Amino acid sequence: MRTLGKPVKSRLILVALSAALMLFVGCIGSGEEATSAQGRSALLPGKVGPSGEIVMVVSESDWNQGIGAAVDSVFRAPVRVLPQYEPRFDVIRLDPDEFDRFWKPHRNLFVFDIADRVDTQTPDMRVARAQYAKGQIYAEIKARSARDAAQMLLQPHRGEMLADLLEQEEAKRYAEVCGLNRNVALEQEVQRDHGLTSVLPKDARLLTSSGGFAWIERSLTRMKGGRNHDVQMGIVLHRTPYSGPQDFSMDRMLHRRDSLLENRLAGPTPGSYMTTEYRLLPRYEEVSFRNEFAAKMRGLWKMEGDFMGGPWTSIAWVDEARGQLVTVDGYVYAPYFGKREYLREIESIVFSFAPDSGVLNTEETEP
């Protein structure tokens, strides 16, 4: 049997990610401790607060002595590859004496303990799930001074990793909401014809499906300024022959994407088609996806020959059994609205796709 091979970094990435997660969220127990935590979680209220919001419990004086600037640098940095500034998270500062039962169930909660005690001489961060509410991410930051806490947040393996964890958590929360009202018939059709399981929202519809290619769209109506506006989200999945690790290079993936979109995704005006916007270079990451190596990209798309555009995200991995590269691409068109939450929502759908061992049409997409 021919071995197709994967990028040699894949195993190193998986090991590094596993080690980082174990160290970072080390407060989650196992065995009897985990069972006890699960039982306690069942008695907790549900989380509250809008998606993408973080409540920071810290005094105004400590906030103004460096913590606020560090939070802005890490958590209010621009969302990557969006066409205009949108912060990664919306931040609310809360004085400790205002921290009551109304705020404790918030979905993302950071509590700062700034005091000169024996247990705060070395800055420390503890991250937990379901401290006060189901589905909550809770972080407790201890330090002798506000400056020490700020410096710790600016360390990439602390603040940046926590921000990444929260982004993943928000996408997972969208997936959980989507799973409450699924389009089971469409999921079964995708599984049968393309060998992929997925979680698709009830209002998703299949536009086209053939030859290892499928285009799924979701149309929404949202009100702003007293008027209804359309929001479109789409999923494009395709299979292509996999020849080796070089297929994961950013240049090849973008060339393959552009060729496919030009031939398959026509725009609303004659001769128009979707393509990648290169004035802002797409972002490429090698990631662990379902315990396997994968490549994730984010960027902007535009409609050649028309005035449309927005953000897109994709994940690509190898189907070794069939010798194919599988790519799932999601895009957003929301000209009258912020894109951050729609991008997270479409990313949650993209990352819901998974390989299925069943029989499928083995035709491959020819861009």
What would you note in describing this structure?
By secondary structure, the protein is of the alpha+beta class. The chain has 2 domains: 44-178, Uracil-DNA Glycosylase, subunit E, CATH 3.40.470; 184-355, Protein Transport Mog1p, Chain A, CATH 3.40.1000. The protein contains 8 helices and 15 strands. It has helices at 9-24, 32-42, 60-75, 146-153, 156-178, 184-194, 250-264, 340-350, and strands at 53-57, 90-94, 108-114, 124-129, 137-143, 196-197, 205-210, 213-224, 227-241, 273-277, 283-289, 292-304, 309-319, 324-333, 354-355. Strands 7, 8, 9, 10, 11, 12, 13 and 14 form an 8-stranded antiparallel beta sheet that branches. It has a 5-stranded mixed beta sheet with strand order 2-1-3-5-4, with helices on one face. It is elongated and about 65 Å long.
